[in-house]
Amino acid sequence: MSASRNILSVCLVSGGMDSCVSAATAANENNELALLHISYGQLTEARERKAFIDIADHYGVEKRLDVSIEYLAKIGGSSLTDKAMAVTDADLESKEIPTSYVPFRNANMLAIAVSWAEVIGATSIYIGAVAEDSSGYPDCRPEFYAAFQQTINTGTKPDTNIEMRTPIIHLTKAEIVKKGVELNAPLHLTWSCYRNEDLACGTCDSCALRLRGFEQAGIKDPIHYEAS
Description:
By secondary structure, this protein is of the alpha/beta class. It contains 7 helices and 5 strands. The protein has helices spanning 17-29, 45-58, 71-75, 105-120, 142-155, 173-182, 205-217, and strands at 8-12, 32-39, 63-68, 124-126, 163-165. The model has no long low-confidence stretch (mean pLDDT 93).
């Protein structure tokens, strides 16, 4: 493990590829990790939680927090949380906000991460946000995280110093795949599909972006899909 100015860092881990590579980066840059998984009423929560546990076990992380903010499902507005809304097939050329966007989800998650980080004395928070997704997900934009950093600085104790870290935010999916391989991230343990919990559908937004990333990286995706 490389030397680092950080002792303990909180890392949000959904169980997907991006959060896994973010966690691998955090493991390489810190002496100790605390992994946070948050349920928000998503369709594939059980499978995502399994991926989170598997990733935490892989890195031998003892500090874990698994919490629920399923009030987001009650608020609705997303095909990931509202069973009346279909999870649409991906359109990777579209610049419209997809139905899978969960309104202001990341702010809710980061608020929990900051609370925990302040209590346990962590000095940074890692999240696997990707700007490539930002045309569809406004809370994945770099400026959102810059603004949230100011919120942290203003809203925590004077002696609290927590730095937001978005290590893959400027990478393409292909670059994220390559970075994951370089860091020996357990990509085979991850789950990205928005629809299924057994075989990934291969056609939702998350699956399509992931598959394109592996294809462009020239690396075989280690998980199985319905069509393969």
